[in-house]
Amino acid sequence: MPDRLFSDHLLQGLEPDEQAVVHHVRRLCTETIGPNAAAVGREDRFAWDTFRLLAREGIVATAFPKAFGGTDARQVLRIRIIEELGRVCSTAASMITGTDLSARAIVAGASKALQQELLPRLCRGEIQSAFGLTEAQAGSDVRGLASVARRDGDGYVLDGSKKFITRASTADWLMVVARLQDHTGFVGLLVPRDAPGLTISPEVGKLGWFGVPISSLRFDAVRVPASHRLGEEGDGFSLAQDALLRARIGHAAMALGRAIGAVEIAATYAGDRRLFGRQLGEHQGAQWMLADMATQIEASRALLHATAQKYDRGDADCAIFASMAKLHATDLCMKVVTDALQLTGGRGYLQDFPLERFFRDAKLNQIGEGASEVHKTVIGRDLVRRSVQAERNPCLREGPLTDY
Ligand SMILES: Cc1cc2nc3c(=O)[nH]c(=O)nc-3n(C[C@H](O)[C@H](O)[C@H](O)COP(=O)(O)OP(=O)(O)OC[C@H]3O[C@@H](n4cnc5c(N)ncnc54)[C@H](O)[C@@H]3O)c2cc1C
Question: Choosing from 83, 84, 135, 369, which is the catalytic residue?
């Protein structure tokens, strides 16, 4: 195989068996996922063939612990897998991030019996779960959740609704976060799709991320046994945050994979296309655009790699790094895909050309798992808070800066 346009140096820290997984994913992308991506991206129906392939080939299992048949991939491996998939097919990449997001609270908080029953089957792709957090009045401001769980005998009665829930139409189990009626916090509950009182809406049309449809949920006095609670009462929010942290790292990897794919396409076009008597790629303006894209992508990959290492080590500042990595990678991807489409002119705008799909898919990474503005708020707030205790810049004299 010829060398890739983007360097493989980030594979070097992986163990040989981890590198083999990346090469396996590459082969799947070259042989099946890449060539099929255009067809998958044409209709917003659940892409069963892609999902079954990822399950059969053991890629879905990377999100699950070994005790339940998974491989418990380190984040430094996981981001390489998702980047590979994102380079050709957002649907495939989002199936891996979405499986992790929706099953994570089961891994972290379900009873042993429920784990034994569900996790091996989720891991093999025989069943699916969905992650139900967002509501009409609680998106970025998740603490505004209005869905309520009321204690009733040995269980709960759930009322409320959820919006934008990926895979709700295909999931067998729904992980739902609700407010406890007595204001003691949030609770995570696992609801089967056939629970009496649960209504799953028809799939809702959207701009991109075809192949993983979304629906709304309504809960009318849905009874949930206490054995289906995830974690303890009050753990609902932290279980969701734990899942979202991994999902943010996944969104960043998917966005960088797509950005890499976009530069590969634009650079190839710049070599193929002749205008004004020479190659497009010989025009300095085109070279500078490609240079900016490639340089920013490598910087963003380095930030994401550092974030994954922090996750694997359990560093306390991992969440802030995940916010920075997601913010940078997803905003960058939107810009890179836009510029790559510009460089490929009218062809880039055609449905037949991959950049049209990349362009539609890029937007969601800036919105889901915390919009860019939310992450800026988190990062900025953290800097101001920590500056009180942090080492003072040696250029400053003692005392409040307002005394200058
Ligand atoms: C295709 C798709 C799939 C999804 N899948 C799921 C799923 O599976 N499960 C689930 O629970 N949710 C899911 N979501 C929901 C998603 O997580 C939310 O859309 C997202 O969190 C943003 O919430 P919102 O749409 O309500 O936007 P809002 O909260 O209304 O925010 C709108 C905009 O306001 C801006 N903004 C927000 N906060 C601030 C701030 N502090 N300062 C300045 N500006 C700000 C941002 O630009 C933001 O985009 C999905 C959404 C989509 C579109």
Answer: 369
Note if the pTM is more than 0.85: yes
What dotted CATH number matches 9-123?
Answer: 1.10.540.10
Give catalytic status of residue 369 as yes or no. Answer: yes
Structure tokens at 301: 């990959």
Any ligand 1 atom below 6 A from CB of 115: no
Q: Which two tokens stand for residue 51?
A: 């999902």
| Residue range 328-383, pLDDT digits in tens | 999 999 999 999 999 999 999 999 999 999 999 999 999 999 999 999 999 999 99
Question: Closest by alpha carbon to 166, among 208, 121, 197, 124?
Answer: 208
Of 87, 85, 105, the closest CA to residue 96 belongs to 85
Q: How far is the CA of 97 from the centre of ligand 1 (A)?
A: 17
Q: Check pocket membership of 75 for ligand 1, CB cut-off 6 A.
A: no
DSSP assigned state of 71: -
Which residue has the least CA distance to atom 35 on ligand 1? 373
Domains of the chain by residue range: 9-123, 129-235, 238-387
CATH superfamily of 238-387: Butyryl-CoA Dehydrogenase, subunit A, domain 3 (1.20.140.10)
Residue 137 Cα to ligand 1 middle (Å): 10
CATH number of 129-235: 2.40.110.10
Residue 92, beta-bridge partner list: none
In this predicted structure, what is the pLDDT of residue 182?
Answer: 87
Q: Is the CB of 133 under 6 A from ligand 1?
A: yes
Q: With a 6 A CB cut-off, is 140 part of the ligand 1 pocket?
A: yes
Helices (H) and strands (E) in the chain, counts: 12, 10
Q: Is the beta carbon of 373 within 6 A of some atom in ligand 1?
A: yes
Question: CA dist 31 to 25, 27, 88, 210, 341, Å?
Answer: 10, 6, 11, 21, 25
Question: Which one of 104, 164, 191, 378 would you pick to mutate in the ligand 1 pocket, going by the greatest count of ligand atoms within 8 A of its CB?
Answer: 164
Tokens of 227: 């054995």
Matching residue, tokens 């994570």: 104
